[in-house]
Amino acid sequence: LVTTQTVGSYQSKIQAYRFHDGCAVFALAGNVGLAEAAIQHSEDALKGSRNKQRTKGELAAVVGGVLAREYKTHISSAGLLGTNCDYNVIFAIRSNVDGIELYSTQTSAFTRSKTGLECAGAGYDVAQFLLRWAHKSDASCEKVWNDAAYTIGVIKRLMPGCIGGEPIFLNLPKDGEIEVSGYAHAKHLETYTAVYDMWSRTLLSAFMDLEDDEVFTRQLGEFAEGIASYRKQWQDKESSGWSNAPPEAAGIVIDLN
Fold first, then answer.
1. Which residues fall within 8 angstroms of residue 180, CB to CB, at 6 or more apart?
2. pLDDT digits over 133-190, tens only?
3. Using CA atoms, how far apart are residues 14 and 91, in angstroms rounded to an integer?
């Protein structure tokens, strides 16, 4: 799950909770106050039962029921659909019984993710377009984080003001230890991939000029040589500077107790 902070007030758009038989991570888009209230009620419901070890489906049903009730009360019944009071939620549930599942809400309904990829917020369409080709269910955590960082960097360039503050990247692995990565590594990736995007657009322009093979051939060679050298530069900086990166750049285990 990827989240950021709202422009101006920089309110967190992510919540994480641990309970006796699992843990959950929530990301929200839209009205922060109403969404956070619904998420907090979900937390209370998840922590309220200690009778048995619940499956991920049972845990999701608890969350879905609370979110549906809250949405109907404060949005649907109040006639606020599509207004600045509206919101939606993405949440990942980990059960001690049978592992992890990803879900998302649409109005008062919630659904299990079919692809393992869910996006929310003003940058939804751009994120879906960029991640559709990159997302693989068996990808490593590092690859997923890089894809997410690249996507956020593109959205920041295309939609100024859409993302405020410094993005936070959370991983909910099978062992249930929430890992968070700060912005330092993502900022490096944004810088290098922005240059790649610029060079590739220049090459695309030459590619579409079907009457000038000479220019295309020359730019193709320059692109291949230049981007390989630029990638090596990035690799060298990562390998030499990662150990000296600020603490927020490293993986941090968050104790939710």
1. 168, 169, 170, 171, 251, 252, 254
2. 777 777 777 788 888 888 888 888 888 777 766 777 777 777 777 777 666 667 788 8
3. 10
Nearest to 193 by CA among 231, 229, 239: 231
For residue 94, report the phi and psi dihedrals to the nearest 5 degrees. Answer: -115, 125
Dump pLDDT digits (tens) for 80-108. Answer: 988 889 999 999 999 999 989 999 998 88
- Longest Cα–Cα distance of the chain, Å, equals 73
Residue partners of 113: CB distance under 8 A and separation at least 6: 101, 102, 103, 104
Q: How far apart are CA 142 and CA 124, in angstroms?
A: 22
Indicate whether 255 pLDDT > 60. Answer: no
Rg for the chain, CA atoms, rounded? 21
